[in-house]
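ok so for the tutorial part 2 we go from a plain amino acid sequence to predicted structure tokens. step 1 is just haveing the sequence, like this:
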Amino acid sequence: MATRREFVMGAAAATLPRLIGTGIGGPAAAAEAVKTTDGNWDQGQVQHLLPTVSHDRFLIKASFASPLQAAPELAVGANRVRGQINAAAGDFWQFDVSGLSPATPYQLSLTGAGGRALCEPWSLSTFPAPDATPERLRLMIYTCGGGHDALNQGLPEGKISVLPSALRRRLLQRGLSFKPDALIANGDQIYWDLRAPLSIKRTPEALRARIEANLATQHQPELSAIHLVRELSDLTSAMPRFVTAFVEAQMNA
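step 2 — the prediction. this is what the tokens look like for a chain of 253 residues:
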């Protein structure tokens, strides 16, 4: 019987460095106007590509360098799935593919209007069936991969709110170099409610207004309220103590 490594490595070791690695950290990658490539794989119009896998289903979220006027299609083997829009602007889409076979590698491709390829095809594999008994498992887990580089602007020398996106990409590549059988990416991956160019310095109030305005355009908002913390005085008693303790330690470091 095939090991978990054999049918997941196409997703973890090959696909993720090329796709998540190109855009981890949110719109910062696009704002830098640098086209990131890995090997000979062509990311085309894709900015982010985040796959979630089970034994019989793919749920894939994608964003594109510019809005798409028509719904893109995802081909998975012989199946074709029409994208569902995630943002009114038309640059964020998701694809829900069900009825797949366990422990099976699939060839995927994204096309736009007129059948135009949006990126080069790639491979992704389903997990084993729930009753399968793989011989071994090497798992990579990380959290909080998102965060716009603009949030590091205007801070005191040596202080940052989030790790720079370039450093986060390097950390992801380093983790994948250990050839995990699967990867769990917990927390926020793409802060698509922040679309400001990095050259624009924003006050907390302006940032909050910008986020809330973009949330209002989302069909399924993931946030219900915004509270920005740029200094210790922004902390409130309503916040969980483990959160305020962490922020205090970071700001006092």
